[in-house]
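Record type: ASSEMBLY
Status: queued
Input:
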Amino acid sequence: MSIPMEHGLLLAGILFCIGLTGVIVRRNIIFILMSIEVMLNACGLAFITVGARWGAADGQIMFMLILTIAAAEVAVGLGLLLQVHRRFHSIDIDQASSLRG
Amino acid sequence: MILEQILFYVAATVSLVSTILAVTRHNASHALIYLIISLLASAIIFFLLGAPFAAILEVVIYAGAIMVLFVFVVMMLNLGAPGVNQEREWLRPSMWIFPAILTLVLFFEMVFVLSSSAVLLPGEEIGPKQVGLLLFGPYVLAVEIASMLLLAGLVGAYHLGRRYLDQDRGAG
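Status: finished
Output:
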């Protein structure tokens, strides 16, 4: 195979930057969570690329740990999203800026 | 092998375009569909990089389970046309300029760091057996920590998902 390593890392970097822009720009909590998913997936892609570079399985193990973190983060984040929607009747992240409990 | 290279660049283009579309859509369900396409393209890239087990996990867990959670929540909230209009009001084009500049600076720094070497990937396949042997050998502590993290996520999601959470606000 003749895929250059830095092209894989470059793709991961572009995906991470798109996700980061999404987190900064969007105000809708669903889109912020989706952008965080994009960023986590880009990290996984970087790990897999580097693992393939040295022929080691460690990259895939790190990808699985990232998958675990993504699953836990989405479960808790969507629970918080439902609570914010129930309490403020809006999914605007700025509504939840006071944290007064 | 030129075929693998072509497949890699096609999948990378699909992944980039669908991710950009997913982040910029006004309608949440359209964005979710684009995000699923992006994750499937990532799975193809994992397969081409010689990680078939990670590709399968990407399809089953990421594009399957996690995205289904998103779809359920979008359906539960039932935003519809008012949500799209609200999103259009929030998301003016001028809001994109400053964050885009910031992330482009970071991106070009990363490109500058990465452009120093020219290494081709060996492309040997790392099967599930190797991954499993390593996962339950040296990395068994990481598996335990991941299980505790999942348990904490389960408890947290159960607590936050309760319908009567705002009734006992004074008790906690």
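Annotation: The helical segments of chain A are 5-25, 29-53, 58-88.
Annotation: Chain A touches chain B through 72 residues (CB under 8 Å).
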